[in-house]
Amino acid sequence: MSNLVQIAFVAVGIVLLVVILIGVGAGVVLATAAALGGGYGNRAEGEGDYRGDRAAALAAGKAALRAVGARDIRTDATTGAIHARRAATRWSGGEDLTVRISPAQPGRQRVAIESRSTVRGTTIDWRQNRRNVAAFLAALRSDERRATSDE
């Protein structure tokens, strides 16, 4: 009987060791993935100013969303926010994009964007949300430059 107890303790010890090693291994994989171009988290935010009235900023926001590949673009009538979605790619399961516009100062609007992974529980987004925000803000600035050069 004492041999069976010793074997049971050794077996339990081996199982615990394997579980600990798997946990450490998973942590190393996540840290490596983040260091090699991924990013922890499932969302990113950014903001910029747009020269023009609210209607012009809304139109520019929708155009910038189309420029980053967003689809299903719709405006919430009560809040004035623009909601859109990007399709899944090899890097992500897709993203929900929200643009909010508020007055900044006379003749200027504050445009804020949030990109959030569609798949809940996403730990590493491979920086796709950051790329969405950067591309949106670049498209918004480009639209603003084009609009002001036409004046």
Describe the structure.
There is one protein chain. The protein is of the alpha+beta class and 151 residues long. It folds into 2 domains: 1-36; 40-149, TATA-Binding Protein, CATH 3.30.310. Helices cover 46% and strands 26% of the residues. The protein has 3 helices and 5 strands; from the N terminus they run αβαββββα. A 5-stranded antiparallel beta sheet has the order 1-5-4-3-2, with helices on one face. The longest helix has 34 residues, at 2-35. The protein is rod-shaped, with a radius of gyration of 24 Å. It starts with a helix and ends with a helix.
Query: What's the Cα radius of gyration?
Result: 24 Å
Q: Calculate the terminal CA-CA distance, rounded to whole Å.
A: 93 Å
Calculate the mean pLDDT score and round it.
Answer: 85
CATH topology of the largest domain: TATA-Binding Protein
Task: List descriptors.
2 domains; 26% strand; single chain; 3 helices; alpha+beta; TATA-Binding Protein; 5-stranded antiparallel β-sheet; 151 residues
Helix and strand layout, with pairings?
Layout: H1 2-35, E1 43-51, H2 54-67, E2 71-75, E3 82-86, E4 95-105, E5 108-117, H3 128-149
Antiparallel strand pairs: 1-5, 2-3, 3-4, 4-5
Helix pairs in contact: 2-3
Give a summary of the structure in a few sentences:
Strands 1-5-4-3-2 form a five-stranded antiparallel beta sheet, covered by helices on one side. The longest helix is centred in the first third of the chain and has 34 residues, at 2-35.
